[in-house]
Amino acid sequence: MDIKKRFIISNTITAIVPVIITVITISGFLFVSSKFLGMDMNYDGFKKNVLIRSELVAIRNDILKQNIENVEETKFQENLSQQISSLNGKFIIIKEHKIIANPNNINKIDIEKCMELVEKNKMDKKIVIDRISYMVEVININSKDNAAISLILLAPIGEDISLLNKLIIAAIVVYIISFIITNMIMSYLFSKRIIKPIKDLKKATIEISTGNLNCEIIEDGDKEIQELCHGFEAMRVQLKDSITMKMKYDDNRKVLISSISHDLKTPITSIKGYVEGILDGVANTQEKRKNYLKTIYSKAEHIDHMIDDLLLYSKLDLNQIPFNFEKTDIIEYFNYCVYEIEPELIKNNIKIQLKNDLKTCKYVMIDRERMRRVILNIIGNSCKYMDKEQGEITLNLRETNSSIIIEIRDNGSGIDNDDINKIFYRFYRSDTARSGAKGSGLGLSIAKQIVEGHKGRIWAVSHGDEGTSIMISLGKVMGNKQVEN
Ligand SMILES: Nc1ncnc2c1ncn2[C@@H]1O[C@H](COP(=O)(O)OP(=O)(O)OP(=O)(O)O)[C@@H](O)[C@H]1O
Ligand SMILES: [Mg+2]
């Protein structure tokens, strides 16, 4: 739910619920009081009281209109009695503080109460006589002889009107209390969905600012708050990743520098040794000197080759070498690779063959020059680490739904299963490789970067002593589009 909606709902509930509670409470009270306590406190009762009051006022106005000669006259009193009888009422006539007519024999104390009401001129003129509530109307007139006359009219009412007033007060109290309670509940719910998540978010940002990037921000609360938390969480993850990446790069750089220093030191040390041998006269014959110089040259070439590889590796690592992708017929391409390398392999007594199991697709998007370097390095390794008299290399092309798989399998010395993934690390060389064939240990890590630059994958499968397979998977090209690998 969004905050705007929550505001609207919360305010509506705060306004409506107290009204409903008040109505239910008052109706319940009216129901109980009329059903079980015998109090006729309902709308009809209220209406009846209003009618009685208006009836009394009508009688009053009627009397005031008449030119009354003498209130003691029986005719006047009969007339009055008739009028008030429609309300089942009673009347008392007082002249100069003396009761001159009391046809219903109302006792003196009650008459006193009526007089008091008249004197106090109360708005709410009511009196209870014999447990019955009467509405009182007083008419003050002067007789001919200027005597003060009060006509007191009494009309019975079903209920004590003050109860109605109390009921109104009770309704207001119930409304206020229920309003406060509803408001408190709504504020609590509101704070739970908005203020609490904001507080949690604030806590998390403080943690992040102090460097703790592991405190996950939970997406809680209303839509906008959730979106805010989501944004902060994405920021935290991004920050964490970039810091981890930076640390990884720093570590990599340290390892790289130590590996370069180590790998360059070995040929340089031997160059120094040979140069000293010449200078000290250890190479005392023409032939010895020639051999020493040949070794120095080959070591210098090795360093040169290593530096070239390093430069290429770091350029690929920094994405500084653009790839020139072309739609390529893979069978034609590998036929050419085989044709190019075959003479060199034959010299080393190694047979090479291409097996094509492709059925539906034969196109891939590759940078021909860079991919050539990958293939030549892999075949070069098969050649370098070949320990069988008759070497065999098989290039096998097959396909899955989305990719073309290139397998380059040899029957060379093989790689231990435990080391199979390490061969793609920079500067990794097995102990036998270090002691035997020349190399910098960068060939396969460069191959990995190039293949990954093609959005492909490269991995190795060990066949124990029987050799090794290097596998490359590349996305198929359907029409002119490359399928995700
Ligand atoms: N076909 C293979 N058979 C056996 N061992 C292999 C094979 N290919 C790679 N290796 C092992 O993996 C290591 C890494 O190979 P990589 O091509 O990266 O380096 P390299 O051949 O030693 O040096 P260079 O940088 O000149 O290629 C090799 O030193 C070797 O121990
Ligand atoms: Mg190699």
From TrEMBL:
Reactions the enzyme catalyzes: ATP + protein L-histidine = ADP + protein N-phospho-L-histidine
Highest taxon of source: Bacteria
InterPro entries from the UniProt entry: HAMP_dom (IPR003660), HATPase_C_sf (IPR036890), HATPase_dom (IPR003594), His_kinase_dom (IPR005467), HisK_dim/P_dom (IPR003661), HisK_dim/P_sf (IPR036097), HssS/ArlS-like (IPR050398), Sig_transdc_His_kin-like_C (IPR004358)
Compartments it resides in: Cell membrane
Domain (Histidine kinase): residue spans on this chain: 259-478
EC number in record: 2.7.13.3
GO terms for cellular component: plasma membrane
Chain ranges of the HAMP domain: 192-244
Key words of the record: ATP-binding, Cell membrane, Kinase, Membrane, Nucleotide-binding, Phosphoprotein, Transferase, Transmembrane, Transmembrane helix, Two-component regulatory system
Gene Ontology molecular function, alphabetical: ATP binding; phosphorelay sensor kinase activity
Ranges annotated as spanning the membrane: 12-32, 167-190
Name by which UniProt lists this protein: histidine kinase
Gene: yycG_4
